[in-house]
Specification:
This protein is α/β, with parallel strands linked by helices and about 150 residues long. The protein has three helices and six strands; from the N terminus they run βββαβαββα. Strands 1, 2, 3, 4, 5 and 6 form a six-stranded mixed beta sheet that branches.
């Protein structure tokens, strides 16, 4: 995996540039900026497909993709969000924002790799899926009948 695009909520509020009727593309969150090239790709796709969008910075929010990077993964990360009223409770979203976000997700998924070299494996997969499985502990044979005296 070379790229991760997270989809989350984007709450319009004073001091924010998120929109209620389109998709919001985040430039950065509290963990820092997202990948420049991947973020620019999302903006270009939104413009190319006439998807209503806005750019925003979430200073007090930490996106889930930060955990993947902090765990040592070498990934390009980006974030887009649906404009919502409220968060982690009775969230409400305009159908146009949901549609715009879905349209951008689809456009991104159908687009070619950002960099062709990202298609190359870092290491051979070889027998990755053929991991040996140890036998279950103890006697795996189940008797057809209970021992005498047990009902």
């Amino acid at each position: 995996m070379a790229e991760i695009v997270a989809v989350d909520n984007a709450t319009p509020a004073p001091g924010q540039s998120s929109i209620e009727n389109g998709v919001t593309i985040a430039m950065a969150d509290s963990s820092g900026p997202f990948d420049y090239h991947l973020t620019r790709r999302l903006i270009a796709l939104a413009e190319e497909h006439a998807i209503p969008h806005a750019r925003d910075v979430f200073r007090y929010y930490r996106c889930d993709v930060a955990s993947a990077v902090e765990a040592g993964n070498d990934l390009r990360t980006a974030l887009m969000g649906i404009g919502v009223d409220a968060s982690h409770g009775h969230e409400r979203a305009h159908i146009d924002s949901i549609r715009a976000t879905a349209d951008l997700v689809a456009a991104y998924m159908l687009s070619p790799a950002l960099f062709e070299r990202d298609r190359e494996l870092l290491a051979p997969l070889g027998e990755f899926q053929d991991q040996p499985t140890p036998p279950p502990p103890g006697d795996a044979v189940v008797p057809d009948t209970l021992p005498e005296g047990q009902a």
